[in-house]
Amino acid sequence: MKLTLRIWRQSGATGRLVEYVLDDLSPDMSFLEMLDVLNERLITEGQEPVAFDHDCREGICGMCGLMINGMAHGPEKATTACQLHLRHFRDGDVVTVEPWRAEPFPVVRDLVVDRSAFDRIVAAGGYVSVPAGSAPDAHATPVPKPDADTAFEAAACIGCGACVAACPNGSAMLFTAAKATHLGVLPQGQPERYSRARDMVAEHDASGFGGCTNTGECTSACPKGIPLTTIARLNADLLRAHTTRSDR
Amino acid sequence: MDTIGLYRTTVGKKVVMAVTGAGLLLYVVVHMLGNLTVFSGPDAINGYGHWLREIGAVWPTRVALLACVTLHFVAAYQLTAKARKARGRYEHRRRVQGSYAARTMRWGGVIIALFVVYHLLDLTVGWLNPNGIPGEIHANVVADFQHWYVVLAYAIAVLALGFHIRHGVWSAIQTLGVTTSRVIGLGVAVAICAGFLSVPFAVFTGLVS
């Protein structure tokens, strides 16, 4: 099959869309494999290859992240760009590929953005205190099944940044809420539950992300289907953190 | 209670919007119910207006409303400014989710505010009212809605309010920490729109005169 790609190329402060036509593509290729094909061609022709982030290529690492035809990770629901296959496009389609765009996600080069703002949010509160001696018994702390399920659903967040890329407010509330929920509903996460909400939201805001308006663009873009209920949970914890005297 | 610390966060500003929005919604519901007394004849609505003044409800309500509107607007302005700065600008972007109501919260709010100014000059002060005699609520309302353009402006404003409420109610509850069904916001919005629109509809069609 044939696709016309309009890819964002940027090496300095500004960039532009550059058109590439690819023939002889297999519908079974993933989107990233198609970019590999393009890059091999560019290298053979002596041109600079397109820089893009990727790692596991099986949808679990969160490295890949492309705005494909204006949709984070492309048109397929609950699918990362690496798991998106060309069979979901039509022969002859024109496909626009852009990097995530948000003030706290500066473009490093072409399709690669700097997502270290996420690392700062996690560092601010996305951890639990554990006794650093011998490993505890596996069943020492009982966890009710519904709590475990809620935590697991939130823990599926791979930190790819699609929620920010899709948000009309450039908010990272879904990411922050996923991390806060994942830890905050488990017994191991209780000691820092409220300070976690306070510190992570403070870092979120300080990093330059916008506020959430509950439009829900993030959840539909999320390759892991993190629900909006996590944001309500984070809001509740944050309110508690600021309305009680306790330093927790 | 760390009010300042809470307000510094984006979530805290949204909490202020949620709480002041709830206050304004309460007023809107009472206002809508008061309007429905127009169906019981001139004496009912004129008497209701007179009674509100008699019990001294008018000025405390105005002060409370002004405080709510101010806080609601300031928080919205600050959040909008932060979002404008934060959001990405794409060459090509498609919406996949997000209702019309959610997308039009900001400009919808501005439209409602502009209408409120007109509405006060029309039916509170009386300057823009064809009848415009203080206390003659029924006559003023009937004089207003004889004109199609007044009915149209009123209907547009009420629908804008309906959309604002549809997303606002759900979003406010979410901000205060509970995820509910979006149907709640829709239900409140439809009920309020129906209540408010019944009056111009009744006057324009001659059911109330």
Automatic annotation (TrEMBL), chain A:
Its cofactor is [2Fe-2S] cluster; [3Fe-4S] cluster. Residues 148-178 form the 4Fe-4S ferredoxin-type domain. GO terms for biological process: aerobic respiration; respiratory electron transport chain. It comes from the Bacteria. Keywords: Iron, Iron-sulfur, Metal-binding. Signal peptide: none annotated. Residues 1-101 form the 2Fe-2S ferredoxin-type domain. The keyword Metal-binding applies. Gene3D superfamilies: 3.10.20.30, Alpha-helical ferredoxin. InterPro entries: 2Fe-2S_ferredoxin-like_sf (IPR036010), 2Fe-2S_ferredoxin-type (IPR001041), 2Fe2S_fd_BS (IPR006058), 4Fe4S_Fe-S-bd (IPR017896), 4Fe4S_Fe_S_CS (IPR017900), Beta-grasp_dom_sf (IPR012675), Helical_ferredxn (IPR009051), SDH/FRD_Iron-Sulfur (IPR050573). One of its GO terms (molecular function) is metal ion binding. Coiled coil: none annotated. Belongs to the succinate dehydrogenase/fumarate reductase iron-sulfur protein family. This is Succinate dehydrogenase / fumarate reductase iron-sulfur subunit. It comes from Saccharothrix carnea.
UniProtKB/TrEMBL annotation, chain B:
GO terms for cellular component: membrane. The chain crosses the membrane at residues 15-39, 59-79, 100-121, 147-165, 186-208. It comes from the Bacteria. It is found in: Membrane. InterPro entries: Cytochrome_b-558, SQR/QFR_C/D, SuccDH_FuR_B_TM-su. Keywords: Heme, Iron, Membrane, Metal-binding, Transmembrane, Transmembrane helix. NCBIfam families: sdhC_b558_fam. This is Succinate dehydrogenase / fumarate reductase cytochrome b subunit. It comes from Saccharothrix carnea.
